[in-house]
Design a protein that fits this description.
Layout lengths: L7 H15 L6 H19 L1 H7 L1 H16 L6 H21 L6 H13 L5 H12 L1 H10 L3
Length: about 150
């Protein structure tokens, strides 16, 4: 099992990014909800790294390093960048949702529904990542589970 979320580097990056996003001014309801969803997922990754490591192995393999690098990037957090980060958070959250027997907490389910209900408002590349997560990722997860020893 690849451990992404409990390394010292990842914990530092998650903590610093949370501080950055907490300091952002948002001008509309969509931005507030998107940033809240990002904050929710990042807080959970930081507080429960073992759960995210265990149930998100596919996305850890596919986008884990890029996710941590993107969070660590010191560039200005504009709409496109935040939408991209949100799409990655959604991919991890959706894999967690598909990989666990229990239902998601109310907050996580609300975040998931926010994406489903607002997907058209995201920038093109983020929207494509979210559509991939909804359409193709469940099959990849099923294949990984069905073919595991």
């Amino acid at each position: 099992m690849i451990k992404l979320f409990d390394t010292n580097q990842s914990k530092t990056v998650l903590s610093k990014f949370r501080q950055r996003i907490d300091g952002l001014f948002t001008s509309n309801d969509f931005d507030k909800q998107r940033n809240s969803m990002i904050r929710l997922v990042i807080n959970a990754m930081d507080k429960n790294p073992d759960e995210w490591n265990q149930f998100c192995q596919i996305n850890i393999k596919w986008i884990g390093d890029r996710f941590i690098s993107r969070l660590a990037d010191s560039e200005e957090l504009n709409k496109e960048g935040l939408d991209e980060i949100c799409s990655m958070c959604f991919r991890f959250l959706f894999e967690l949702y598909l990989s666990t027997k229990n239902d998601l907490s109310f907050e996580f389910d609300s975040a998931r529904r926010f994406i489903f209900n607002n997907i058209e408002l995201f920038e093109k590349s983020a929207k494509e990542q979210m559509e991939f997560a909804i359409r193709d990722m469940p099959i990849a997860i099923f294949k990984a589970v069905a073919n595991s020893d």
